[in-house]
Write a structure and sequence with these properties.
Elements (H helix, E strand, L loop, with lengths): L1 H27 L2 H23 L17 H19 L1 H23 L5 H27 L1
């Protein structure tokens, strides 16, 4: 179990590092160019890993529905938007925005799919997320005015 926890922590560090590098590259070029290089290097690395480890093309990939492949184009848009946001609001605030968006979207998906949940717990969680983001924004404005 410890190995998996360490791998998850390493994954988080690498995602943070990737966002920082994309943000810096976006400042020097454009968010779309930063997204292109992010995906080009990722594609090359994952292709090499797939060839080395095996299973580059898993069985049944050709029978997957068309919408299973929308993750690529959506990922390009997500990375480009993240590169744009980091350059404007900073890495910490963009990470908070992403995490908050994921949590609120998860609650919305649970609601739409009819998953049993406590309305007050979900509403309270969303209120805490939005409140935390507002407090962070207020502190940043106060620091700039000093």
């Amino acid at each position: 179990m410890t190995l998996f926890i360490l791998l998850a922590c390493l994954g988080g560090v690498l995602v943070g590092l990737s966002r920082q590098l994309n943000g810096r590259l976006s400042i020097a070029t454009t968010p779309l160019i930063a997204s292109f290089w992010n995906h080009a290097i990722g594609f090359a690395a994952l292709t090499c890993l797939g060839v080395f480890v095996g299973g580059l093309l898993p069985a049944g990939a050709a029978e997957a529905p068309w919408y299973a492949y929308l993750g690529g184009p959506l990922g390009v848009l997500f990375v480009a938007a993240g590169s744009w946001a980091i350059a404007r609001i900073g890495a910490v605030n963009s990470a908070l925005l992403i995490i908050g968006g994921q949590m609120v979207t998860g609650v919305a998906f649970d609601y739409v799919s009819g998953m049993p949940a406590s309305f007050w717990a979900n509403a309270g969680g969303i209120a805490l997320i939005i409140g935390g983001m507002m407090v962070s924004r207020g502190r940043r404005k106060a620091e700039r005015s000093q």
